[in-house]
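Thread: Modeling a multi-component assembly for a lab meeting

Hi all, long-time lurker, first post. My supervisor asked me to bring a structural picture of a complex we are working on to next week's group meeting, and I have zero experience with this. I have the sequence lines for every component (1076 residues in total). Could someone generate the structure of the whole assembly? Inputs are pasted exactly as I received them:
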Amino acid sequence: MRRRAPQGTQAVQRALALLRSFTPETPEHRLSKLAAAHGLHPSTAHRLLGVLEAEGLIGRSPDSQAYRWLPRPAGAGAGPSIHHNGLRPLEPLRTPFHRRTAALCESNAWRDWSGYACVETYEPTPEREYWAVRNAAGLIDVSPLFKYEITGADAERLLDRLMTRDFSKSRTGRVMYTSWCNEEGHLLQDGNVQRLAGERFLVSAAEPCLRWFEDCGWSMDVEVRDVSEEVGVLALQGPRSRAVAEAATTGVDFGAMRYFDLATGEVGSGTGGAPVTVSRTGYTGDLGYEFWVAAEHAEALWDALVEAGQDHGLLPAGLLALDMVRVEAGLVLIDVDYVSASHAEIEVLKVTPAEAGLAFTVKLDKQADFVGRRALELERDRGPAWAMVGLEVDWFELERLWSEIDLRPQVVGQPASREPTPVFAPGGWQVGQCTTRFFSPLLKKYIGLATVHADAAALGTELDVEVAVGYGRRRARAQVVRRPFFNPLRKTMVDPMPGVDG
Amino acid sequence: MTVELTEVAGTGSGTPSRGSGRFDAIVVGAGHNGLVAAAYLARAGLDVVVLESSPEIGGATRSEEAFPGFRFSVFSYLVSLLRPEVIHELDLVRHGLFLVPTASTLNPLPGGDCLFREADPQRTYRHVARHSRRDAEALFEYKLEMRRMGHLMYRLQRAAPDELAAAIGDRVAESAERLDVEVSAEVADIARYFLDLPAAQLRSFVQMLTMSSADFLGQWFESDVLKAALSSSSIIGSMLSPRTPGSAYVLLHHYMGEIDGIYREWGFQKGGTGAVAATIARAAQSHGAEIRTQSPVARVLARDGRAAGVVLANGDEVRAGVVMSSAAPQISLGRLLDPEDVPGGAGAGLVERAARWQSGGCAGKVNLAISGLPRFECMPEPGPHLSGGITIAPGLDYVDRAYDDAKYGGFSERPFIDMIIPSVLDPDMAPPGKHVLSCFVQYAPYELAAGPWDDARREAFGDAVVRVLAEYAPGIEDQILHRQVLVPPDIEAIAGIPGGNIFHGELRLSQLFLLRPDPAAAAFRTPLPGYYLCGSSTQFGGGISGGPARLAALRALDDLRTAATAAGGAAEMP
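Re: Modeling a multi-component assembly
Sure thing. I ran the full set together rather than chain by chain. Output:
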């Protein structure tokens, strides 16, 4: 039997009861129903909910029609301070989608990405998220990318000087994937450049590079602005992503968007939604779009995409799933598959774009002088020393190795490994290193990205890679194969339709 | 695992020695370098005695329970330069080496702001980006370049400077014969490495030998806050402002420090730095070395143009064919060595040059026992910042002004302070809930213009330190239970370092490599055969490194082997 509340505490009890009805399982309530459920007059409920909202204990749904559960701030009720709860000059970095991703992150598996806490997997294992990207649609928060807005009369000139691609050919409404190098032709980074207007570009990069861009534009009429924390980015990737994107936004002609096109529209199904920029890009090798939105509209964008995705099998996907699909797509990752020349402690770690598999981004025939041109011309004449290759170990080889310890191959279900392992000439010396690898459940092969001596890089070359077989390390026979490992038609086709890839 | 210093002093003949003795080798001074030299000599099978003038070993590497329950590292306070080869060859971990890393640096700033640098590069990027995004990016590349420079120094300092010069000379002008030095394959390798450096690194190296740290850092950074924070390492132990040419070298000297191969890591020895000395002493004793405290040496004994032992202050003679001094040159070359004993009249000028040696002290130490953790205005709550270094150097002007005071013979009214809280790193250092705060303070010149360092001036200096601390950690003045203030004359008196210079002489180009500490005694050998130098004033320089002593001992052992071979007798040397 409930004790009768002492005088004056009734409001507190009612407020707490209201608060308790907001849970991750039942996150949203409309005022009228909630008031009725608690036997309160709507105006009383409204007053109490208003206080809870003002105190940051609950929020509003995107359309403001309902109140919404909020994850508890970290450390609340965590007990006495021991060591890490001390005030620090830095607030923990949160992407603009953090409240949404945190509410869904059942596994509590987080990974640091440029100082942001990012979801590794929402569920304890990444399988469903991985398959969602390949079979339906996955929604990935990639906001920690560094973003630089480059504006001014010389914006194009600066990019043409910085980048190995030919920016005299860049057009408003297009995105260019490019490399940039130091004066020795060594790769600093790779990334996408959006041309938002004639004199306005947005560069996305994995590592900070404001100083480099500013210094290279020293004498130019150009401004470089770090907008990393102002812009949230969501990647919507997978065969159903067009349908989801169309339902979640207004004003974008998705049927007309080509691969690497850029468009602007509004969030939501009606007009008046938050402005959003859409690029048909991604890091998955699949049909997909990336949404660039001002941080204050980030949650509205997330909610619109999640709601639209409910009919299409959309799942939020974490970084483990992203890592798997990007290997299938054959896409290199800075600091995993190559070391930026600005981070390389010794010379041998530095690579040219060609050596990192990015030769296609180097346009030596372009008009403008660009940083690293002379060195890259020399490299063209003598040939790169290293090559980035795709390696594939077939099923029978895996069976052979595991049969030695009387097991079926134990390869599925493991996330992509980032620990570099040696690559050998068959039965011979080391010729390079395999920097990322995993068993693709889609392709049913063990695949990896490796940097090897240029003379061991021809398609069909046989090489040995080290694989863990139980506690042992065995050499598995691998073949150099074409990248990407997985390359569906829908990735690039105009007006992509479901089912095009069979 | 508290390491008790007295154990060591007790197991050696802690009592003053009476009567003569005969040994293979004598080491003068039981600071960390003297002990390292003794350990290496004893490890090679020599019968070794260490003669220490004071009642306790350790020199400037010393801890004491200055107030009941509170242990202070009296002078030196962190370990980074201790050479891995010394750690491993002397098996120091088995003998008690226990280094707790200090992972961060906090620079409190006026107005409750701060610059915090943590182990995680992403977080450090963000901390620095609050002051300058450009600098946050540049810091990555700066650290990379400094690691390369530190690695270069590490390689250069692994060799005796004459061998190195010969090897480089060999490559440059085929002049090795002129220097009459045999070049080992390892040194030749170092020379090759040096000469093949990329141009950009050679440029950085020359800059570091000649520039001021403010100018050097100014090439990289725009924010005064970061430049001041990084310049701290360029003035530690040196009567230099960050704006004095040559201070960039001191920066480099500190980048040579490493822990387990990672440059620029610092560690706190459990029990305080005195435990490092105790550890090395145990290693030396495990090889049979004898350590005698309260045994001041008056002079080196020479017979037939060779060192033959020493004469103690009480007149006793101790005989040995090898004498090695870890003391500063004013003592080793200026007081212990009679120039007339040097064969061929080669000793002339040694005394005079030793007197000109630049080694004025510039730093004081204020050790505080406090009733609770300090609450820094910028980060008042307990947190990881309290287990790292905390430096009061809010701007280059601030540090330069602190230097100005000292330039004109005063102590800094608003000093530069480099702090750690040892009791956070090692709870054994203070009673539960209470703490010790170690403040390394600059500038405090050896000689004050106003008159001698008496108690009143010492306390006034201590008050200046507490006043500055209270600006950044309000209320700390009420937390202080005990205070120990030490100034250069105290370092001189207790650790036996003339002038109280913690490096036994300024680390400047004019006092490095073949000039350290004297052109005639730069390669650990002195002009008196059999008499060697092994202290911080030789190649490698200051800091708890053991580097000079190791190289000196190896050189002496090499000479013994050569002599034994030349004598044709059965080699006595193992």
